[in-house]
């Protein structure tokens, strides 16, 4: 009844709100003031703007102040704009190009003429756009000339000064997690709202792009837009719009290709005796087309595109090719019949393991082979769009998009082997529908309405349903069904309704509107769904001597018989806002407004009466089954634009305000999946060889009662006062246009956290302290809390808020376009970002567990993982004229350089350092030279080796007597050059018909020197010491014993450090 009531309320609110803004923008606009030669405003002047390619016409009439506004216009152009007034010569402005989401200012001074002939003016278009905050726009030319192999939108938008590409494939803005970004295509949600994908986009788990680059018309990036219509992010927002049909039939066919011959040999310095090796066999192919056409000239248009991508490559690690022949196991492997398999992992050993698995775990016919496993990715992307000019006053758009993709996931490495059929296939299917109606109600009232629906289906498929085997024996071996993939699926449905009403009164433009979202998520996530057996050696595996058994299943008595149960979460966010854009003078504009968002969960997790009556729940006020209270989050904002000089060549802009984002809904869904009710756990430690071996654990273990099904549960709760992320952001920008087209831009950006996520384990109780040195040397600087864990629950992770965190950046950019076809740009950004928890995982327990800290339940404010202090970028692009023989060449060279990946200095905990029940998450204490000798060491040389390492590390040596800060370390500065070459052969120059051959080089400097352009692999921590044991003083306080661990240097990424090339061709008609 409670859930039904919430759904009814949500639907009612949605209907009411839909009478009144778009979260992001999909169109452009034109505005200005018309006056006579005496600078008196002309009321009643007619303004007609025509989009030349489609013949689409937009009209307006100036008001008493001589001002006009035309909203809802197609982005791009070119446009011709005619302004006429009785008794005066009309003005015709040619080659006007509009940018997505940026109003174009076009003022006109009219003169009396007896001849009344039109005066033709060519638009300069330099300082005419009207953005107030930091961001960037990328038109079709930039998209086409940017070097890329993956054909990702991120390859283009990474040249936003505040943007940084992450090692995991995502993109970060202003030093924040990519999960806090918004990505919309034609106003429809394209980012992964649930939050599973490292790239942050729908289909990102398969590596597929949410849309083909050839279907995109323009991309806008905003980081600090002070227009209250833009919301849904606390990082940055990417708004892309697709192409539209025109009055001319146009289109293209294209294909891209690369294989192992287009990849360089081994990069980086070589050890003695090593040789540079070619990359293993791989193949990548892309085919696609676009077509746009009129259905009814000037009235009705269609655009469609489709793209097919497939890539295959072998996993380079295999026993067959000797990948592991030099890895010595902890002991000689001897089968139960006495046969020795040696002490090195090889193909014979792998074959014996699969036979043992099939004979003992109820699985036959695994079809296992030990050759190099072929890994395949495939993606199909198609869209169709209709544009209808109902009249000069009403424009309608309808778009449908479909994506179907899969990717084989195979986790093997130099010290980890995953049997071929233990891999899984990640698949995605996404359907998107967008409808938009833009209406000029009167000359003073404009309305924009949009509705979208996005349906995402993610799932994992496995070769067979068999028990998971995990072996650690100086090499990690995975056999059977992948631990996290036996029962793993996610469905999401997203519906949005948005509406803007703009009213033009004098020198004011008043906008009121609403943006409303409703989400439905269904998530199946049962780790170890066929049971998971852990062994400490390969010998133990053959002897069935189990170290740990785990199994998670859904209790059919609570799920209607479903043992593969998934939780359903309904959520909504409703937004209202009002804004005034006031232009008291031609050179000054002030925008101020207020936005109110009300997020809410529409259903509740199942209550857990036993937990809710526990001391943990009562003392912390955290209960299973409760959801955050629906509260209104206000976002006031104000921004300005001021042309300092009368020539309008110097612009000062900026503003301040609050921004409300979304929370990755998987963090909320954790509380629905982990109630301790529907999903149950079996955990048996060191059961030995008497425990049953089975791939049907529900019947053979749970029902038969061999082991208790009441394993320690992990509980997730939601704080009743939890609020969605909010950040206060201030931006000040300076733009100056120098002579001969040079333009300089400066942006200063500061962000302060108002609300962000914070994870806390309530199952911990502080019982004492751990002395990093010893009890005698203990002081406030070298003592950390020591905890004990509740015996009833594995963990109780609460999702809360923190207001700690901030970031800042300063960026400068110089650019120029030369009339002979050369474009240049160079920029530099400096900044830092700080956080308490970056939320790098989709699992609440992992977000708490792997947040490196001194006090695990009260983490310190420190560097964000996404902090990159330095960024350099440059673009040099040249396009020749079209020569008489129809040839034209484009060459674009880009440079992207910056600070390396952040990492933490931590300890390897063979003994739990702080009693939190987890290992590897404790930050390193950096002792003084005197304290090093006072610490307890396992080896006689450990102290000297540790002292030597501290002295040779810049950060550690300058922070002695302190705990190391989270992500204090930073990787090596990286330099990467990319190159794009396109050779055009025009066979119909008048209509732009041509054949184009394309070559894209990534990391091209490595082509000339194998030690240039190196990429370093992600390493989030470097373990310096091992905690071998703890000694208690009997009062709950602990003193550790250490051994020194030689930390590994940051390793090179073997693939990305090599130069890579891709060939393509495109037929344009």
TrEMBL record:
Keyword Transmembrane applies: yes
Segments crossing the lipid bilayer: none
Organism: Candidatus Cryptobacteroides excrementipullorum
Name under which the protein is recorded: TonB-dependent receptor
Membrane topology classification: Multi-pass membrane protein
Superkingdom of the source species: Bacteria
Keywords: Cell outer membrane, Membrane, Receptor, Signal, Transmembrane, Transmembrane beta strand, Transport
Entry keyword Iron-sulfur: no
């Amino acid at each position: 009844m409670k859930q039904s009531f919430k759904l009814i309320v949500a639907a009612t609110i949605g209907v009411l709100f839909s009478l009144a803004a778009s979260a992001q923008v999909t169109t452009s606009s034109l505005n200005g003031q018309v006056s006579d030669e005496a600078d008196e405003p002309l009321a009643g002047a007619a303004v007609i703007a025509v989009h030349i390619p489609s013949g689409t016409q937009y009209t307006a009439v100036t008001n008493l102040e001589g001002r006009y506004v035309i909203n809802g216009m197609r982005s791009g152009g070119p446009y011709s704009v005619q302004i006429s007034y009785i008794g005066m010569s009309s003005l015709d402005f040619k080659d006007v190009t509009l940018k997505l989401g940026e109003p174009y200012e076009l003022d006109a001074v009219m003169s009396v003429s007896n001849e009344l002939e039109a005066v033709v003016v060519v638009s300069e278009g330099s300082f005419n756009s009207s953005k107030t905050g930091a961001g960037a726009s990328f038109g079709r030319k930039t998209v086409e000339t940017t070097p890329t192999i993956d054909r990702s939108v991120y390859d283009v938008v990474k040249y936003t000064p505040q943007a940084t590409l992450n090692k995991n494939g995502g993109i970060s803005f202003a030093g924040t997690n990519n999960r806090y970004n918004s990505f919309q295509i034609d106003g429809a949600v394209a980012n992964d709202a649930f939050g599973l994908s490292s790239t942050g986009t729908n289909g990102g788990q398969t590596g597929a792009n949410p849309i083909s680059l050839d279907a995109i018309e323009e991309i806008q990036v905003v980081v600090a837009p002070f227009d209250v219509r833009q919301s849904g992010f606390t990082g940055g927002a990417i708004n892309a719009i697709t192409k539209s049909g025109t009055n001319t039939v146009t289109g293209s066919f294209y294909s891209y290709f690369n294989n192992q011959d287009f990849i360089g040999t081994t990069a980086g310095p070589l050890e003695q005796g090593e040789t540079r090796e070619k990359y293993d066999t791989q193949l990548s192919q892309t085919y696609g087309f676009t077509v746009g056409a009129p259905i009814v000239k000037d009235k009705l248009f269609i655009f469609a595109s489709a793209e097919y991508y497939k890539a295959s490559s072998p996993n380079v690690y295999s026993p067959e090719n000797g990948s592991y022949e030099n890895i010595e196991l902890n002991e000689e492997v001897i089968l139960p019949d006495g046969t020795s398999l040696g002490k090195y992992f090889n193909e014979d050993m792998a074959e014996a393991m699969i036979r043992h698995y099939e004979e003992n775990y109820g699985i036959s016919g695994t079809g296992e082979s030990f050759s190099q496993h072929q890994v395949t990715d495939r993606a199909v992307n198609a869209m169709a769009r209709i544009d209808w000019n109902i009249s000069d006053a009403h424009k309608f758009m309808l778009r449908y998009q479909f994506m179907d993709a899969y990717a084989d996931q195979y986790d093997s490495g130099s010290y980890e082997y995953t049997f071929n059929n233990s891999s899984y296939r990640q698949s995605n299917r996404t359907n998107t529908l967008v409808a938009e109606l833009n209406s000029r109600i009167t000359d003073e009232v404009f309305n924009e309405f949009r509705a979208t629906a996005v349906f995402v289906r993610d799932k994992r498929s496995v070769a067979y349903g068999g028990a998971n085997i995990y072996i650690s024996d100086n090499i990690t071996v995975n056999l059977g069904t992948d631990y996290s993939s036996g029962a793993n699926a996610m469905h999401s449905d997203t519906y949005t309704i948005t509406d803007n009403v703009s009213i033009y009164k004098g020198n004011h433009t008043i906008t009121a509107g609403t943006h409303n979202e409703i989400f439905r998520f269904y998530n199946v996530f049962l780790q170890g769904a066929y049971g998971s057996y852990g062994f400490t050696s390969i010998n133990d595996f053959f002897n069935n001597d189990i170290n740990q058994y785990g199994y998670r299943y859904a209790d059919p008595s609570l799920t209607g018989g479903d043992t593969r149960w998934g939780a359903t979460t309904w959520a909504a966010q409703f937004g209202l806002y009002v804004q005034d854009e006031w232009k008291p003078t031609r050179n000054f504009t002030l925008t101020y407004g207020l936005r109110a968002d009300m997020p809410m969960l529409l259903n509740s997790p199942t209550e857990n009466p036993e937990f809710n009556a526990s001391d943990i729940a009562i003392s912390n006020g955290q209960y299973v089954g409760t959801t955050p209270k629906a509260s209104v989050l206000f976002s006031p904002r104000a921004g300005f634009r001021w042309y300092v000089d009368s020539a309008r060549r110097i612009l000062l802009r900026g503003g301040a305000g609050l921004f409300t984002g979304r929370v990755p809904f998987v963090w909320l869904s954790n509380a629905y999946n982990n109630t301790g009710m529907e999903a149950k756990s079996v955990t048996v430690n060191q059961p030995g060889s008497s425990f049953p071996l089975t791939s049907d654990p529900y019947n053979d273990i749970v029902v038969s009662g061999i082991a208790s099904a009441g394993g320690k549960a992990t509980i997730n709760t939601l704080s009743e006062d939890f609020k969605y992320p909010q950040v206060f952001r201030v931006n000040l920008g300076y733009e100056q246009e120098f002579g001969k087209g040079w333009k300089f831009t400066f942006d200063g950006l500061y962000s302060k956290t108002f609300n962000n996520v914070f994870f806390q384990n309530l199952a911990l109780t502080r019982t004492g302290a751990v002395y990093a040195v010893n009890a005698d040397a203990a002081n406030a600087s070298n003592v950390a809390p020591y905890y004990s864990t509740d015996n009833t629950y594995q963990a109780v992770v609460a999702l809360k808020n923190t207001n700690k965190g901030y970031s800042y950046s300063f960026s400068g950019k110089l650019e120029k376009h030369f009339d002979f076809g050369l474009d240049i740009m160079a920029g530099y950004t400096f900044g830092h970002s700080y956080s308490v928890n970056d939320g790098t995982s989709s699992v609440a327990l992992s977000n708490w567990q792997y947040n490196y800290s001194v006090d695990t339940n009260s983490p310190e404010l420190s560097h964000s993982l996404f902090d990159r202090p330095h960024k350099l970028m440059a673009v040099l692009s040249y396009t020749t004229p079209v020569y008489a023989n129809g040839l034209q060449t484009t060459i674009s060279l880009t440079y992207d350089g910056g600070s390396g990946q952040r990492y933490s200095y931590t300890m390897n905990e063979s003994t739990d350092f702080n009693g939190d029940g987890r290992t590897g998450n404790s930050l390193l204490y950096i002792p003084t030279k005197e304290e090093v000798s006072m610490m307890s060491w396992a080896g006689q040389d450990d102290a000297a080796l540790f002292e030597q390492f501290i002295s040779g590390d810049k950060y550690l040596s300058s922070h002695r007597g302190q705990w190391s800060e989270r992500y204090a370390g930073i990787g090596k500065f990286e330099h990467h050059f990319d190159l794009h070459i396109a050779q055009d052969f025009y066979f119909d120059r008048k209509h732009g018909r041509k054949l184009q051959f394309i070559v894209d080089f990534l990391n091209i400097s490595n082509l000339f020197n194998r030690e240039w352009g190196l990429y370093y692999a992600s390493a989030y921590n470097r373990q310096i010491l091992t905690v071998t044991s703890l000694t208690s003083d009997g009062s709950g306080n602990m003193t550790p014993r250490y051994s020194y661990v030689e930390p590994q240097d940051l390793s090179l990424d073997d693939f990305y450090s090599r130069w890579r090339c891709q060939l393509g061709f495109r037929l344009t008609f």
